[in-house]
Amino acid sequence: MPILASIGAGSARGFGEGAGVSVSAEFDYLVIAGGGAAFGSIAGGGGAGGYRTSFPGGTQVTLTGGVTNITVGAGGAGVSCGAVEAAAGMGNKGIDSVFNVCGVENTDKFTSAGGGGGISRGGVAGTTNKDGGSGAGANNDGPKVAGVGNTPPVSPSQGNNGGTAGQSSGYDRSGGGGGAGGVGGNGQSSAPGASGAGGVGAPNSITGSAVNYAGGAGGGTGGGNSNTPGPASPCGTGTAGINVGVTGQGPAAAVNTGGGTGGGTAGAPNAGGTGNGGSGIVVLRYTTASAPGSVSIAPGANSLTPAPCSTTVATFTVSGTLTVA
């Protein structure tokens, strides 16, 4: 594969690479998975993709000469409008993002789990599709079980649980999806009321400027226009739930943010559709002065750019490779 971008530090050659000594560099990382999508018909909000980072102040990883594979997870696929109102279904879970650490000193890999998919009313009890980096909000009919975040468990936690659903008659206020910075909001029990808000996302400045990632999505509504959908996550990237009676397609979450998408609505004859969850992103940052002979990335859709404080940032918006030589 051709090298499509490269930044190197020639002085590293003087430290023994030519004599058979392996080159290496210390990297900070940010690994965000794809966010979950909700289904239609009063679904809980989609959970945010898993959020794992060493920046700022965490333990860096050592990359020794060789190729590191990067997988950027897609967001869960949305559900097109047109599903009948009473349909029970599961929103699609986001896809994992993976940073494989290769080389002599590291054989581990860092995986952020895709966000949980929001389940519609009457949806399947016990499904693990609702669990993930952050869990989906509870649906307001049927099992009413919120998704569990930080699934599978890692430390520090990669996400939070979804919110619960309102329990009054009418079954029309679902929970919000969990986010990297907090649990999803609960649907209100009293009528009229609101569905749960998406869980708060998390800002990170590994690229040199603060960007919000991994916000949960608001829960969908039904049962009358007096009820309101769950709002989008504050400081995050999930979308709001869809109001009752709306039959158009709900918005997709922004790409490369890991945000979830809002729950659909009940509205005869069709439930409102939901957009795709936000795709993930992987960012690696190293101190330029301590870099090995070269660092290169592929394909060209990704970027390798200088950043503040004499650092360089490799940003992966699509799956690819990083080569240390």
What does this structure look like?
- The chain has one domain (1-79, 89-276, 290-325).
- A 6-stranded antiparallel beta sheet has the order 1-11-14-5-6-7, with no helix packed on it. Strands 2, 3, 4, 10, 12 and 13 form a 6-stranded antiparallel beta sheet that branches. It has a two-stranded antiparallel ribbon with strand order 8-9.
- The chain is 0% helix and 20% strand.
- The model is unreliable at 1-21 (pLDDT under 50).
- It is mainly beta and 325 residues long.
- The chain is built from no helices and 14 strands.
The biggest sheet amounts to: 6 strands, antiparallel
Number of separate domains? 1
Helix content: under 10%
The span between the termini is: 15 Å
Structural class: mainly beta
**Which strand order do you get reading across the main beta sheet?**
1-11-14-5-6-7
* H/E element sequence: EEEEEEEEEEEEEE
Uncertain residue ranges: 1-21
- The oligomerization state is single chain
> Taking Cα atoms only, what radius of gyration do you get, to the nearest Å?
21 Å
Mean pLDDT: 79
Helical element count?
A: 0
What is the number of E strands? 14
Strand content: 15-25%
Shape estimate:
elongated
